[in-house]
């Protein structure tokens, strides 16, 4: 099966290389990517788009389900240590859903075992009713429910056609030519008069008008067929749609992409990490890579790391960001930077913060009291972070070792992916590994890979042995 892929964003060079080596065809390449890989400028429509997301640490994969799954399978062979979330229902697909009724003021329906929000008027939210609907929001992360709207829908290479009480024509923001946008509006005017809405996709800007007219006719025929099948059938998915997947990249996987990119153009270590986490450092990275024409990569990379260390030290405070497998980001608060040390290709920093409120220390069942001091040891090459809790007298109250992907350190921020399993130790007691069951749950859901889970358990056991 031939799969055409469009690639955009800060990971484009590395991802393009992986895809080309995997036998995929790159279409609509940027000028820079076409030049770097000597690619022809193919304007064929893409089956899949891979791009950096609104969070630059996230990689978005969107495309026809079978093609997107092939791309995901290839990418996760190299990107092994990141969180992966994938849509539960295909975007723009026609489905038959069973209404469950109102929950928390919203109409809820099910497609098989998948719960979704049905956007409909209150009078139509009748429990047990079967509804032909289409998926307008896929639900990717665990706390996101898909959203459905009544009516059938089909997707093609150039357009999306859907039933609508208020038919309209919309055009992708990537079609920037006023003349082309006007042309697309005119082509769709006839079909809207028959109760269909049209959304022109970005690839429509490359197609001839005659081709687009034929495309709309074919989509109309397909929609009528899909609608008839859905009305006659039971719950399920009745037309193809798009898989939407998000990979939240860990620092270690960004380092893998650094090496892939370095095989195409000279790339300093920490390129993708610094580019994705700090807009201020992006220009510094660009400048450092200009120096690779004159200096060895390891020399420039060490100097870049030393520059980051100096900035961390100068700012004097960092916020620790703890990314959970459900996609939530927990800030552990702002800590004072006590020391910063450069060790070959990694940074080691000691942080300190004062406790201001009462409570319990997680996993230890030890009282947290105002005046306590939390000392945190962060090393960017280690798969864990160590928190030590001290009473005002200096007495050690307990140790909590958070198992996570190697932390990414930038001025003002420490960020990592939390792997759920942790190690705790109270003075005079044996250390304990906790929350392995939580880790297994995310493996079963496909968010954490078996390989990443094995690494997390291996690290936890090693840490526990050293604490004994």
List its salient traits:
six-stranded mixed β-sheet, seven-stranded mixed beta barrel, 468 residues, Alpha-D-Glucose-1,6-Bisphosphate, Chain A, domain 3, alpha+beta, FomD barrel-like fold, 3 domains, single chain
Describe it.
A hairpin with a 2-residue loop joins β18 and β19. The model has no long low-confidence stretch (mean pLDDT 95). This protein has 3 domains: 4-88, Alpha-D-Glucose-1,6-Bisphosphate, Chain A, domain 3, CATH 3.40.120; 94-240, no CATH class; 316-467, FomD-like (FomD barrel-like fold, Beta Barrel). The chain is of the alpha+beta class. It contains 11 helices and 27 strands.
List the helices and strands and how they pair.
Elements: E1 4-8, H1 12-21, E2 25-26, H2 31-37, E3 48-52, E4 58-64, H3 65-78, E5 83-86, E6 94-103, E7 106-111, E8 114-118, E9 130-137, E10 147-150, E11 153-155, E12 159-163, E13 169-171, H4 178-192, E14 196-200, H5 209-232, E15 236-237, E16 242-248, H6 251-262, H7 271-277, H8 279-290, H9 297-315, E17 317-323, E18 329-343, E19 346-354, E20 359-361, E21 366-368, E22 373-379, E23 384-390, E24 396-404, E25 408-410, E26 413-425, E27 432-434, H10 436-444, H11 450-467
Parallel strand pairs: 1-2, 1-3, 8-10, 13-14, 17-26
Antiparallel strand pairs: 3-4, 4-16, 5-16, 6-7, 6-9, 6-15, 7-8, 9-10, 11-12, 12-14, 17-18, 18-19, 19-22, 20-21, 22-23, 23-24, 24-26, 25-26, 26-27
Helix pairs in contact: 1-6, 4-5, 7-8
């Amino acid at each position: 099966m031939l799969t055409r892929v469009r690639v955009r964003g800060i990971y484009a060079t590395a991802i393009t290389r992986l895809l080309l080596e995997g036998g995929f065809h790159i279409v609509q390449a940027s000028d820079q990517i076409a030049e770097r890989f000597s690619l022809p400028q193919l304007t064929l429509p893409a089956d899949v788009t891979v791009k950096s997301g609104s969070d630059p640490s996230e990689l978005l994969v969107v495309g026809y389900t079978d093609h997107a799954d092939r791309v995901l399978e290839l990418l996760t062979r190299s990107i092994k240590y990141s969180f992966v979330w994938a849509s539960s229902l295909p975007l723009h697909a026609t489905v038959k859903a069973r209404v469950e009724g109102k929950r928390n003021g919203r109409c809820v329906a099910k497609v098989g075992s998948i719960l979704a929000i049905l956007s409909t008027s209150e009078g139509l939210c009748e429990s047990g009713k079967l509804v032909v609907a289409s998926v307008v929001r896929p639900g990717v992360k665990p706390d996101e429910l898909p959203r459905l709207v009544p009516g059938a829908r089909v997707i093609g290479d150039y357009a999306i056609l859907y039933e609508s009480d208020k038919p309209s024509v919309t055009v992708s923001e990537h079609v920037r030519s006023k003349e082309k946008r006007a042309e697309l509006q005119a082509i769709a005017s006839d079909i809207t008069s028959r109760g269909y809405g049209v959304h022109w996709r970005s690839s429509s800007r490359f197609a001839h008008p005659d081709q687009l007219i034929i495309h709309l006719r074919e989509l109309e025929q397909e929609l009528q067929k899909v609608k008839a099948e859905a009305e006659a059938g039971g719950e399920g998915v009745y037309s193809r749609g798009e898989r939407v997947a998000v990979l939240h990249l860990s620092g270690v996987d960004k380092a893998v992409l650094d090496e892939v990119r370095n095989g195409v153009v000279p790339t300093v270590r920490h390129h993708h990490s610094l580019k994705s986490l700090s807009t201020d450092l992006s220009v510094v990275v660009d400048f450092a890579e200009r120096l690779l024409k004159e200096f060895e990569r390891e020399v420039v990379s060490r100097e870049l790391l030393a520059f980051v260390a100096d900035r961390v030290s100068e700012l004097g405070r960092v916020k620790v960001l703890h990314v959970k497998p459900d996609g939530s980001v927990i800030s552990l608060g702002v800590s004072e930077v006590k020391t910063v040390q450069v060790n070959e290709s990694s940074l080691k920093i000691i942080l300190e913060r004062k406790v201001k409120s009462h409570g319990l220390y997680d996993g230890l069942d030890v009282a947290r009291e105002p005046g306590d001091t939390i000392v945190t040891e962060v090393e960017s090459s280690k798969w864990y972070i160590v928190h030590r809790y001290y009473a005002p007298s200096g007495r050690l109250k307990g140790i909590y070792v958070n198992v996570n992907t190697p932390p990414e350190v930038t001025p003002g921020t420490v960020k990592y992916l939390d792997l759920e399993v942790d190690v705790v130790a109270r003075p005079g007691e044996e250390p304990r590994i906790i929350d392995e069951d939580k880790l297994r749950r995310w493996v079963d859901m496909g968010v954490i890979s078996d390989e990443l889970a094995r690494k997390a358990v291996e690290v936890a056991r090693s840490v526990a042995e050293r604490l004994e």
